[in-house]
Amino acid sequence: MHNLVIDIGNTFSKVAIFKQRELVHYQRLTVLDEASLANLIDQFQVKNVTVSSVKQNISELADFLKQRINYIPFTTAITAGVKNNYQTLATLGLDRWAKVIAAHCLYPNEACLMIDAGTCITYDVLTKESEYFGGSISLGINMRFKALNHYTGRLPLINWNQKEEIIPKGTNTENALKNGVLQGIINEIEGFIALENKKNEALKVILTGGDADFLNKQLKNSIFASQIKYDQYLVLKGLNEVITL
What we know:
- 33% of the residues are buried.
- The mean pLDDT is 94.
- The strands form two sheets. Strands 6-9-8-7-10-11 form a six-stranded mixed sheet, sandwiched between helices.
- 36% of the residues lie in helices and 26% in strands.
- It is of the alpha/beta class.
- The radius of gyration is 19 Å and the shape is globular.
- Helix 3 (94-106) packs across helix 7 (234-244).
């Protein structure tokens, strides 16, 4: 039996096939089309599917999936063993909630800080008692570069390449922008980890998201390196849990 999970983000859609809890297929798409999904459903003989989306309306996609396989709506009402204390459940991003569920299943009875570096950077904390109270939402890397260009008269727009592994010294304007944004985010992340370390014993830090690989490399020499786990499939694993349980 195979499960299909779909994570629709602000920039990309991620599609994965799981056999129980084993990831057997993964795609990152700029366009999510029904023909490709139909091919995956047939190829892997998919039985169950669920979707997380930052978009408000996915009714057409849901109707398409319902016609072919067992569609299980993913909502914040699905707790999977986590006590959700978030005050505005209607506005809690489903991708954030999926990460909480994934951390709960992957690291039971451990305090976890999930850092998702995508269009935005989100920080979410799960206590060792399996309680969730929320977290923080910050600007992502490219959003910061765009803001610096948009709100100033002369600063250029930086087309940052994720494959750049070194944060340059600010010896010219372009590098000063890169240094400010990239080093600023590293400092921000380390600050959040330090803060949560004071509140949660033996905290595990899980990095995920499109920019997480770059950030993980930057944090290899951090004093927090031993706490950090890199898992690019964290949201997808959380979605899979709710249709595997």
